[in-house]
Design brief:
about 325 residues; mainly alpha; globular
């Protein structure tokens, strides 16, 4: 019997409401043992608590072995690129080294594919790496580009955040070096400007980088014969001081999109059964289908906003398509 003041309420048993377990939830939710809504690129729980999770670098045992050998011997895993000046590997983390490996691998694969339009990638990636060994802001621009591509492949918020981190350091270093612009550092300034222009995510930012690049090229004309970027300096019109998107009428835009989608569809047999190539092609085809719903564009900002993902997808996977097409006669 309970004495005076005893609690007469019936005993309540706390029960945890069960939820359906999923193997597709993000790593952070699994670690915290909570339900994940599996939203991409980041679930609501991670967004709410600002939990990006570790970057997904598509690391494999083979790549780990290559990185270990690279660090031990100082010899690049991609000798065909002809990189003559190697960055001091002791100054870089395994994550940085993985990003260097990834961007070098893309260039090497495009070289094997013998793409007629690979001159910037194949001939300039070794130059970018050489300059990056001497100028940290060029290295950050290169690592940002590599992380951006890996983020596109993995849809990992942590990897994308890694690209933003390196991009910010690259921009800060570039601005500081421009204040001390000279013939000696001009190639590094131009290299970083080119790399960052490929990563711009908004029209104003891209236009600003292009205008800055045009100014750099104009100042470099006096010593262009001694620059490693002679072909850029000779084609100054590529960096117009007032770049504007091309205006194309609605009927013509729709015709072009239909033609592009049909060309992409013909590539499907060549990438069947190949996960990475199939994803790239599927993303591009979905992009072309969806972009028609936004036509006509009302402003330059809107045009850049909607067309920018296409550039990221195309530049990221074109060498994979070339490699597969080369195996099969058309």
């Amino acid at each position: 019997m309970g004495g005076p003041g005893a609690n007469t309420r019936p005993h309540q048993t706390n029960t945890r409401r069960p939820h359906t377990k999923s193997k597709l939830g993000c790593k952070t939710c699994k670690r915290r043992h909570i339900k994940c809504d599996q939203q991409k690129p980041q679930c609501r729980n991670c967004t709410k608590h600002n939990k990006l999770g570790p970057p997904d670098l598509k690391m494999t045992r083979e790549i780990e072995q290559h990185l270990r050998q690279w660090r031990e011997t100082g010899v690049s895993p991609f000798p065909s690129l002809g990189v003559t000046v190697h960055p001091p590997l002791s100054e870089y983390s395994n994550t940085d080294l993985r990003l260097m490996y990834h961007i070098s691998n893309i260039a090497a694969q495009m070289e094997k594919a013998e793409s007629p339009q690979h001159s910037v990638w194949v001939s300039r990636v070794p130059l970018f790496l050489n300059l990056a060994s001497k100028y940290k802001f060029v290295m950050h621009a290169l690592l940002a580009l590599s992380a951006s591509h890996l983020g596109w492949l993995t849809e990992s918020p942590g990897t994308l955040q890694l690209s933003y981190y390196h991009r910010g350091l690259a921009l800060n270093g570039l601005q500081d070096t421009i204040g001390r612009f000279s013939m000696e550092n001009s190639d590094a300034v131009l290299a970083a400007s080119i790399l960052l222009s490929w990563q711009a995510t908004d029209w104003q930012g891209w236009a600003g980088i292009m205008r800055g690049t045009a100014t750099v090229i104009e100042q470099m004309q006096a010593w262009k014969e001694s620059s490693e970027f002679r072909e850029y300096l000779e084609q100054n019109d590529l960096f117009n001081e007032s770049p504007r998107p091309n205006a194309i009428g609605l009927p013509e835009s729709q015709r072009i999109l239909i033609h592009v989608h049909e060309c992409l569809r013909k590539l499907e047999p060549f990438v069947q059964g190949k996960k990475e190539e199939s994803k790239g092609l599927s993303d591009l085809m979905a992009f072309v289908r969806n972009i028609k719903t936004y036509l006509p564009f009302e402003s330059e900002d809107e045009q850049f906003e909607h067309l920018h993902p296409c550039g990221a997808g195309y530049s990221s996977c074109q060498f994979l398509f070339l490699k597969e097409l080369r195996k099969t006669p058309m």
